[in-house]
Amino acid sequence: MTDTPLLEVRGLNKSFGPVQVLRDVDFSAYAGQVTALVGDNGAGKSTLVKCLGGIYSIDSGDYLFDGRPVHVHGPRDAAALGVEIVYQDLALCDNLDIVQNMFLGREIKRGLVLDDITMEQKAAETLAGLSVRTVKSVRQHVSSLSGGQRQTVAIAKAVLWNNRVVVLDEPTAALGVAQTAQVLELVRRLADNGLAVVLISHNMNDVFAVADRIAALFLGQMAAQVKATDVTHSQVVELITAGRSGDLGLRQNGATV
C-alpha cells in the first residue's frame, strides 16, 4: 500500500463543442484498492472513464501514472501504461470459445501457426489465479456461458495482459443475486492481488460491499472522494443527487469542500 495513487488526474476538463461535460475533475485510484466511481446518469462517469482510457482526449489537466506525468493520446498509450477498461457490453464474441476471446487480436503464434496449447495454458492459469471455479472448460463457447461467467471471462481477459489498473463499467448490471456475489468477490480479489480497480456502479449495496474509496461525480464535477468507511449510504446518495451532504461536497459556487 502506498500514499501515491497509481492513476491520478488533476483539474481535468472535457468539452464537446459548447457543452462542458467535465469541469476541473480530480480523481485518484490506488493499487490494492477498489475505488467506486458513482454518479447519476449524465454526471460524466463514462466521459471520465474514456478520458482515462485514451478514447477521448483531455482538453486540459494533468494525467499521472505511478506519480509521474504522462501523455495519453489514444487507447494504445493507456494500454501501454497498463490501463484496461471492461465495458458493460463486454465486447466478447459469442461464436468463439473462452481462449479465443481472451487472446482475440493478441494471439500467440509459433511461426505461422497459432500456439493453441500455450494460449490455453495461460487462459487456464489466469482463471485459476483469480480462483474462478464457475467455468468448466476454457474451450467453452461464450454463447453457452451465463451472465456472471461472461463477466468473469471479460475481467480475466483484462488481467491476462498484466494490467495494473482495471476499470469495470457496471459489472453486475442485469445479473442475479448469486452471479452478482461471484463477480463482486472477483472484484475484491483483483484489488487484493495489488491491482487498482475502478468500479462504476449505480448499486450502493455493491459499492459498500467491495469499495475502499468512493468518488462521487455531480453534473461534471467531483463532489467528493472519500473512504467508504467515512460515509453512509444516505450521504453518498445525497452527493450523487445534490452534490452535497452536510459539510461534505460542493459549495454553491461549485468549489469542493
Automatic annotation (TrEMBL):
PROSITE patterns hit by this protein: ABC_TRANSPORTER_2 (PS50893)
Specify the ABC transporter domain's residue ranges. Answer: 7-244
Give a yes or no for keyword Cell wall biogenesis/degradation in this entry.
no
What keywords does the record list, in alphabetical order?
ATP-binding, Nucleotide-binding
Molecular-function GO terms, alphabetical: ATP binding
- Pfam families per record: ABC_tran
Alphabetical list of InterPro entries matching this protein? AAA+_ATPase, ABC_carbohydrate_import_ATPase, ABC_transporter-like_ATP-bd, P-loop_NTPase
The identity of this protein, by name, is: ATP-binding cassette domain-containing protein
